[in-house]
Specification:
The complex is a heterodimer of chains A (about 230) and B (about 425). Chain A is an alpha/beta fold. Chain A contains 8 helices and 12 strands. Among the domains of chain B are: about 5-145, no CATH class; about 280-410, Heat Shock Protein 90. Chain B has helices spanning about 5, 15-35, 45-50, 50-65, 65-85, 95-145, 150-160, 170-230, 240-270, 285-295, 320-335, 375-390, and strands at about 280-285, 305-310, 315-320, 345-350, 355-360, 390-395, 405-410. In chain B, the strands form 2 sheets. A 5-stranded mixed sheet of chain B has the order 2-4-5-7-6, covered by helices on one side. Chain B has a two-stranded antiparallel ribbon with strand order 1-3. Classes of the chains: A alpha/beta (about 230), B alpha+beta (about 425).
């Protein structure tokens, strides 16, 4: 997670449960981050302003304030990546957080591997915001973004313009969840945000062209009720 | 006077009172005759005759039509007997008095009729006013009534003051008015009670949802911490000896199992209380299957999973999150009852009205009871979710052995597909 020689990324975790803060700290320190803990939204606000962290991990169910309100306040002055923790079952909450500016979410209970993968994906973007590589490989697939070509085991794969646009957007946010709304707005435009089934049909098409087993995808993952995630 | 008016209750009098009126009428006429007798010398006979219509009119106003008619005839008789020559006989010497009698009788009878009509109209007006007042009081009492019992009490009270039904004096329109009044009041109380009931239900539902959400949060949070702390134990210091790492892993697994149990219990409570709203979306079944397989991938590493979903399957409208849960539970169930290396198949087919989705395995199959042991909660959740979608779960053993769970989901015409692009 850390480039050799670079300073260790600073992560602020705001959660009222000390046990969760404790294990998140252990997991992230093992991965080379320095971690600052806050038990309340108020404390979190102070730490955010003082530390200028590289990542915020925010529990949505704080005792003193709604996590969404904290997020909205933060987004007025900072673009720091935010990973939301949700104990709630309701996918609508997660979508609301993502649409309010959160970058990704984890549902409790989550494992350390999952946590580290999410943090890594968010820090990659935060620490290297410049253009990613023009050539991306995942599974048998190689995508050349500059030449707009896709090959599978060296064989060219034909993607429609919409499929390619969808794939390019997922690649640009690899490892992160993108909501239906975000994808529909980017690929089809803001007038199509209600046409969820367009997106689903095209994702199905992409999987059939790119996944070894489209019924059990390894890269183009579904986050039910929320959106999609490309895992490289 | 028409028949409807005569049907109004004119405070019916007992017979002895009727007789008293006739006696009084006769007495009044007698008294006038007595007053007139000493005046016979000083006053002209025609002027004395004028007293009789006066008494007839008073009798008509005070005592009614019958006594007035009696008074009219009695007036003529007494006038003839006491005042017209020859006195103290009914014989008449001067025939011109016959005209006087006729005029006197006609005036007296007309006066009686008119006065009696006046009196009846007064009585009718009074009776109507009484009714209106009673109706008003009843309506007022009804508007304050809060229960059907109170309305019933008011009804009993109001109807006893009405004449008995069936009698020809029974005022039907009045009864109808009362009936409408009580019906309206009952209706109002009914809807009031219904509104109150649904308000209480909504409140109870809200509290139940809030309680379940709080419980869910309060149970999940410490279990998340517990599982995470156990998992981070090997990371916190120098590498743990294998035995201790195994214990830490066992703690984590137990915490996750407890979490899943708590989640299932709370979700089932929520589903069975009907507090779940489906967030339906049109999607290819493949997507939900993929999400479920992805979510349960760690349980399925030791099994072969075959997915056989024809390309021709139509889109289906369902709640993707809940449906993923259904498939997860069925996959868990299959993984638990199938030995390592076993085979799990997911198949689907559709006609115009139904999509059949099957999860089958080559494990031990179901017992005779038709339900596998130890999976009550998971299957109850499956049943509740499928039921909420209007579908059905069939559980049985496949012909080739092993258990098979089939979901029969209703299909509706899908929305327009996105335009085809090259």
């Amino acid at each position: 997670m850390r480039e050799s020689g670079a300073p260790s990324p600073v992560v602020v975790i705001v959660d009222d449960e000390p046990g969760i803060r404790r294990f998140v700290r252990t997991a992230l320190e093992t991965a080379g981050c320095s971690v600052v803990e806050a038990g309340t939204a108020e404390r979190g606000g102070i730490e955010l302003a003082a530390r200028k962290p590289d990542l915020l991990i925010l529990d949505l169910g704080l005792p003193d304030d709604d996590g969404l309100a904290v997020l909205a306040a933060l987004r007025t002055w900072s673009g720091v990546p935010v990973l939301v923790l949700s104990a709630r079952n309701d996918e609508q909450d997660k979508v609301a957080a993502l649409d309010a500016g959160a970058d990704d979410y984890l549902t409790k209970p989550f494992g350390i591997a999952e946590l580290q993968a999410r943090v890594r994906a968010l820090l990659r973007r935060a620490l290297r915001p410049a253009d990613g590589p023009a050539r991306i490989r995942f599974g048998d697939i190689e995508v050349d973004l500059a030449r707009r070509s896709v090959t599978r085991n060296g064989e060219p794969v034909h993607l429609t313009p919409i499929e390619f646009k969808l794939l390019a957007h997922l690649i640009a946010h690899a490892g992160r969840v993108l909501t239906h709304r975000q994808l529909l707005t980017t690929v089809w435009g803001p007038n199509h945000v209600e046409h969820n089934h367009y997106l689903r049909v095209y994702m199905g098409g992409l999987r059939r062209k790119l996944e070894a087993n489209p019924g059990f995808p390894a890269h183009l993952l579904t986050e039910s009720g929320v959106g999609y995630r490309l895992v490289l | 006077m028409n028949s409807r008016q005569s049907a109004l209750p004119l405070t019916p009098r007992p017979p002895q009172s009727q007789w008293r009126n006739y006696v009084l009428a006769a007495a009044a006429v007698g008294a006038v005759a007595g007053i007139g007798a000493p005046l016979l010398g000083q006053f002209d006979l025609a002027n004395i005759a004028m007293l009789f219509p006066l008494v007839v009119m008073l009798v008509a106003v005070r005592l009614g039509r019958g006594p007035a008619v009696l008074a009219a005839f009695l007036s003529v008789a007494l006038f003839d007997f006491f005042f017209v020559h020859p006195h103290f006989t009914f014989a008449v010497s001067d025939l011109q008095y016959l005209l006087t009698f006729a005029v006197l009788l006609a005036v007296a009878l007309t006066t009686a009729e008119l006065a009696a009509r006046l009196r009846r109209e007064r009585d009718v007006a009074e009776a109507r006013e009484r009714e209106a007042r009673q109706l008003y009081h009843t309506a007022q009492a009804l508007s304050a009534a809060l229960s059907a019992d109170e309305i019933e009490a008011i009804r009993t009270r109001a109807l006893t003051s009405l004449p008995t039904p069936g009698a020809d004096t029974s005022p039907n329109s009045l009864r109808e008015t009362y009936a409408t009044l009580f019906a309206t009041a009952l209706e109002r109380v009914h809807y009031l009670a219904q509104a109150e009931r649904s308000r209480v239900e909504i409140e109870a539902e809200r509290m139940r949802s809030a309680l379940l959400a709080t419980l869910s949060h309060d149970l999940r949070t410490p279990l998340t911490a517990l599982a995470g702390l156990a998992e981070s134990l090997p990371l916190a210091g120098p590498p743990l000896p294998a035995a201790q790492a195994e214990l830490a892993e066992a703690i984590r697994a137990e915490a996750l199992r407890t979490h899943a149990l708590a989640r299932d219990l709370l979700d089932l409570a929520r589903l069975q209380s009907g507090a779940i709203t489906l967030r339906r979306a049109w999607l290819p079944l493949e997507e939900v299957v993929g999400a479920a397989l992805q979510a349960r991938a760690s349980l399925l590493t030791q099994h072969h999973v075959d997915i056989e979903l024809p390309d021709t399957l139509p889109l289906i409208e369902l709640d993707p999150v809940l449906m993923e849960r259904v498939l997860c539970n069925l996959l868990e169930n299959a993984a638990r009852h199938t030995p390592v290396g076993g085979r799990i198949r997911i198949t689907a087919s559709a006609d115009t009205e139904t999509m059949n989705i099957s999860v089958s395995d080559n494990g031990t199959g179901l017992g005779h009871g038709g339900a596998p042991s130890g999976t009550g909660l998971g299957l109850a959740i499956v049943r509740a979710i499928i039921g909420a979608h209007g579908g059905r779960l069939e559980a049985g053993n496949a012909a080739e052995g092993g258990a098979r769970f089939t979901l029969l989901m209703p299909l509706t015409p899908p929305p327009q597909a996105p335009e085809h692009e090259s």
